[in-house]
């Protein structure tokens, strides 16, 4: 029962964090939008990768729920399939990138082992995978790819990921340095 409650808490943290950062990103960076939903800075992409690195499958589930909510109640898509596929792409790509990073870099809880070089590589990997997944689905549906939008999404996602992961890594290190005996981070991330 305790594991199920922790899993649901991780799903909820991911869902709320992503929705909040999406709202904040729209307020702060609306002027940097290249086209509807395509931004030169996309901070929520960082939550996509961070939540899957910290919470695994629960992070994927929270991202999927957030994507479905946004795609059906905030953004406008021409079809339900496009809304569903976009939500799946937005959750699946960071989850796969986090699985690759865990395997390649032997990452441990609380982002231990995520050096600056590994952070850059993992951020760039997810920053490419997520937009490619999104645009691959658009290509399947329409037969065309907006190469400019794809490039902007790659830049925006990568920048957002690097901002969030760098901040999270710093906060975790600061908490552990100030309170080495603290169990707060262990409780939420293990």
TrEMBL record:
Keywords assigned: Membrane, Transmembrane, Transmembrane helix
Superkingdom, taxonomy of origin: Bacteria
Transmembrane segments annotated in the record for this chain: 45-69, 81-100, 120-141, 147-168
Protein name: MASE1 domain-containing protein
Organism of derivation: Massilia norwichensis
């Amino acid at each position: 029962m305790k594991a199920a409650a922790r899993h649901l808490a991780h799903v909820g943290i991911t869902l709320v964090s992503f929705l909040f950062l999406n709202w904040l990103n729209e307020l702060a960076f609306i002027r940097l939008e290249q086209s509807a939903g395509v931004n030169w800075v996309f901070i929520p992409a960082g939550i996509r990768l961070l939540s899957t690195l910290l919470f695994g499958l629960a992070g994927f589930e929270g991202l999927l729920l957030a994507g479905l909510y946004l795609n059906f109640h905030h953004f406008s898509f021409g079809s339900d399939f496009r809304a569903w596929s976009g939500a799946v792409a937005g959750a699946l790509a960071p989850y796969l990138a986090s699985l690759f990073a865990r395997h390649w870099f032997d990452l441990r809880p609380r982002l231990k082992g995520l050096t600056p070089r590994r952070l850059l590589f993992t951020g760039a990997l997810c920053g490419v995978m997520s937009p490619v997944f999104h645009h691959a689905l658009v290509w399947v549906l329409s037969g065309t790819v907006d190469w400019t939008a794809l490039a902007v999404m790659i830049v925006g996602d990568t920048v957002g990921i690097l901002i969030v992961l760098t901040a999270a890594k710093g906060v975790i290190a600061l908490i552990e340095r100030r309170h080495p005996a603290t169990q707060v981070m262990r409780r939420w991330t293990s």
